[in-house]
Each structure stands twice: as structure tokens, then as C-alpha cells.
Specification:
Helices cover 38% and strands 16% of the residues. The protein is of the alpha/beta class and 449 residues long. The chain is built from 17 helices and 15 strands. It has 2 domains: 167 residues, Response regulator (Rossmann fold, 3-Layer(aba) Sandwich), CATH 3.40.50.2300; 253 residues, P-loop containing nucleotide triphosphate hydrolases (Rossmann fold, 3-Layer(aba) Sandwich). Helix 10 runs parallel beside helix 11.
């Protein structure tokens, strides 16, 4: 049974506490508060004895959480995780809490505080004694340093509060610990010649199609007419719409023609940026007619016809996406900077490693990154198990390019997102750098149609 509850928007702090308390800790990402505090608290399992709120929660969120948790779990201890600041007295007055813990407090100090508060709650009759878990850390001495404000909440019973939970302010400056190593890391990959690039994402709406389209566009600059882009997002693929193309044939017909190179060529749609496209099936019901084995055969055939085969996959790890990754030399994995998406990508990696389907070349793209969202880029690595390779900032240029039916890297090469996507292209082929001649030639070609 879990003993502690952490509600936080800091993936780094969560990873550290999960390592420290293991099975004793359950976590609730702060992003769930978007749907309301009641909805978030509904996800709490068991009956935690102590709740740690923060870091990166607002005063309003912390106050409401404290009140709701106290209502749902009477007697619960509340620890606010935040830095010592001038407005601390406001928090003390408005939030029903037992202590304020610095997020930079050492592991020993953190354990010491929770153990002392836990003991007091049990003694005061507010919580049941914890069950042995076998992974309890050695108890720390009473002199463990910690940055905290200890506030007394008088128990209804006549039990005297132990000295460990004092009523005075105790502020101690501590050395900031080194960041914790990730609990799980992606294995190293070997490096092979790029031929087939599968662009994948654990969830929809991550920008996977944008990356696939711009990869094909950038690679076609150095390998004109030797790049093919497959829209294997079977039910709702929209590459044809993004590139303003009229598709009268699609992947279903191409899979049927996997053994006939001549027939495959008649099914290709040529884009004016010197690459070819196989659109998604023309209707969602046709997706069920595509046999994964036959799709694998088509990928192999196209790899003999083109220098680069780029595949935009269906979100998640369905049968067809696994087929694409199985035949890929490169995997481009796209995620946004949200806890839910990062965790989903980690789960996807763990499964691919277990199945032995992680491509030999790997590229992690952190997409639509913006400031003041509660997470920073450094928070991604402990969750994913590897550092992101390309950071793409959020930009309105992505939507403008899609609405114009033009690849982002050609619509506005100076856009920050376009420059970041260009870095991804150059990871595949270092010669794919932008030139004025290339961009202008394609712009004129597009306008003349």
C-alpha cells in the first residue's frame, strides 16, 4: 500500500521521489488539475497518510488540493514543496499544511521530515501505522537539515505533539544535490545507412505529420526524385491535404501492387518539391483491408526503388506501426513537452526494446516547446530515459505553412520551428542545408501551378 502522495508539475522532482520512496509513493501529475481538483483527486488510490503538494503548483491549486484531500482523507498530513519566499506567510495563512519542504532538500532531510510527520500522525490517531514494505530507508537522525516551516495542527485527541514537528521557522541553506540519474535509459543504437525512416508518436496531435512532410522535403533537396513519403496513418492520414494534393489513389492500392514495381510507379503522386507520395487510404474503412505483412513487402520494394522511404505512421503501436518500425533503419519519435506525452513515449520505448523493434538509428523530437508551462526541456530526459535530439519551439508558422499547403522549411526558412526541423533533416543527411536557389526555385514552381 502506498503511504505518500505527490502532486507536482516537476517531472524531475517526481523522478527523484519515486527513486527515494519506491512503492510507498503514488504520483499525480499536476496537469490533471486542468480538469478540476475533484477530477484529479478521484485518481488517488488507497488512503495516503501524507500528501506532498508541489513544486510548480499555484497558491490557489495548493489551497484547493489541501482542502479537498482533507475532506476525502480526514487526518491526512500536508507538506507544501516550494522555495522559501517573501510571500510564505500568505501560504501559511491560506493553506492547511503541516510543513513547507524545499525541493532542493537532500534525500536524507526529505525522508527525515516525512518520517517524523508520519510518526506524529500515527501517534495523534490521524493515520494508521504503515505496513512493512521491505524497502524502507534507514531512519535519519533528528538533526537532519531541511528548509521547512513547521506548523502545528492540534489533534482532536489529547495526544501531545512530538518535538519533531515544531512550531517555529527553521531555514537552513543546503547544497543543491546533483540531478538524479534516470531510472531507465534507452539502450545505445548502432548507426546504419539510412534508408527507411518511420516517424512515430505515442499519441495524436504531436506534430508527427509535420515532421514526416518536412523530412521528405529536405531530403529531396539532396536526393531529388529519390524520396517517397508514405502516409501510413491509415484512418485519418492527411498528408495529401497538408500538401494541397488531390488523391485519387492511396496506400490500399499500393499495398495490393507490392510485387509489381511498374504498377507501383503509376500509383505514385509527384510533389513539385521533387519527391513522391503514397497517400493514406481514401476512406477509413479501407484501412482494415491493408495486411501488415503486405505493407512490409511494399516498404521493402520501395527501399529498392528510392534512396529514402519516409513513413508517417498511425499514433500508438498498432500492428501497422510496428510493421513500419520493424522495416525501418531510422525511427523519428515525436512528443510534446507534457507529462502525459513524455510518459507515453517512454512506455512506447520500453515496449519496442522488449520486442526488439527499436530502429538502429533513433531521433527524439521534442515538439511545440514553449515557456511557462510548468516543464522545461531538462525534465524530459529523466522521463524518456534519453535526451531529446531536436527541440522544436512552438510557432504559428507551422499552421500557416499547413494552411498554405507548403512544407514549413520552404514556406518560411527563417521561422524558428523551420530551423529546428532543418536540424532533424540534417541528422539524416548532413548535406541537406538550405540555399537561396533551392527555396526560390520551389516557391516559383508552387506559385505557377
Amino acid at each position: 500500500m502506498t503511504r505518500y502522495l505527490l502532486v507536482s508539475r516537476s517531472a524531475e522532482y517526481e523522478t527523484r521521489l519515486r527513486r527515494l520512496f519506491r512503492a510507498r509513493l503514488q504520483t499525480l501529475p499536476g496537469e490533471y488539475l486542468t480538469f478540476g481538483v475533484d477530477e484529479a483527486v478521484d485518481r488517488v488510490r488507497d488512503t495516503p497518510a501524507i500528501a506532498l503538494l508541489g513544486p510548480l503548483l499555484t497558491l490557489r491549486e495548493t489551497k484547493t488540493l489541501s482542502e479537498t484531500l482533507a475532506e476525502r482523507h480526514p487526518g491526512i498530513g500536508v507538506v507544501v514543496v516550494r522555495e522559501q519566499r517573501a510571500d510564505l506567510e500568505d501560504w501559511v495563512e491560506e493553506v492547511g499544511m503541516h510543513a513547507v519542504l524545499s525541493p532542493e532538500a537532500t534525500d536524507a532531510a526529505t525522508e527525515s521530515l516525512l518520517e517524523r510527520l508520519d510518526d506524529w500522525l500515527v501517534t495523534a490517531g490521524r493515520a494508521e501505522a504503515p505496513e512493512p514494505t521491505g524497502d524502507e530507508a534507514d531512519p535519519q537522525g533528528e538533526d537532519a537539515t531541511i528548509s521547512l516551516v513547521d506548523l502545528l495542527l492540534k489533534p482532536e485527541s489529547a495526544v501531545e505533539e512530538p518535538a519533531a514537528v515544531a512550531t517555529s521557522v527553521d531555514v537552513v541553506t543546503e547544497e543543491v544535490p546533483e540531478p538524479a540519474e534516470p531510472e531507465w535509459t534507452l539502450p545505445d543504437v548502432g548507426g546504419v545507412r539510412t534508408e527507411v525512416i518511420a516517424v512515430a508518436a505515442p499519441k495524436g496531435g504531436q506534430g508527427k505529420t509535420t515532421m514526416a512532410v518536412n523530412l521528405a522535403t529536405g531530403l529531396a533537396e539532396v536526393a531529388p526524385n529519390s524520396v517517397v513519403l508514405i502516409d501510413a496513418d491509415l484512418q485519418f492520414g492527411d498528408i495529401a491535404n497538408v500538401l494541397d494534393l488531390e488523391a485519387t489513389r492511396g496506400l490500399a492500392e499500393a499495398v495490393d501492387a507490392a510485387d509489381d514495381e511498374v504498377l507501383i510507379k503509376t500509383l505514385l503522386i509527384r510533389h513539385h518539391d521533387d519527391f513522391f507520395i503514397i497517400p493514406a487510404p481514401r476512406s477509413p474503412e479501407l484501412a482494415d483491408t491493408i495486411d501488415p505483412a503486405r505493407m512490409g513487402a511494399l516498404i521493402n520494394r520501395l527501399a529498392t526503388m528510392f534512396r529514402y522511404v519516409v513513413i508517417d505512421t498511425t499514433p500508438g503501436l498498432g500492428e501497422h506501426t510496428l510493421t513500419a518500425l520493424e522495416h525501418a533503419t531510422d525511427g523519428v519519435f515525436v512528443t510534446s513537452l507534457t507529462v502525459a506525452s513524455l510518459r507515453a513515449l517512454r512506455t512506447e520505448f520500453e515496449l519496442l526494446v522488449t520486442l526488439g523493434l527499436l530502429p538502429q538509428n533513433r531521433h527524439i523530437v521534442l515538439n511545440a516547446v514553449e515557456k511557462n508551462t510548468g516543464l522545461v526541456v531538462a525534465d524530459a530526459e529523466p522521463i524518456i530515459g534519453a535526451a531529446p535530439d531536436v527541440i522544436v519551439p512552438r510557432s504559428s508558422g507551422v499552421l500557416l505553412a499547413a494552411n498554405a499547403g507548403v512544407p514549413l522549411i520552404h514556406n518560411d526558412p527563417r521561422d524558428p520551428a523551420a530551423k529546428a526541423v532543418r536540424i532533424l533533416v540534417q541528422r539524416i543527411d548532413p548535406d541537406a542545408y538550405p540555399t537561396r536557389r533551392r527555396i526560390h526555385r520551389r516557391s516559383r514552381s508552387h506559385e505557377s501551378q
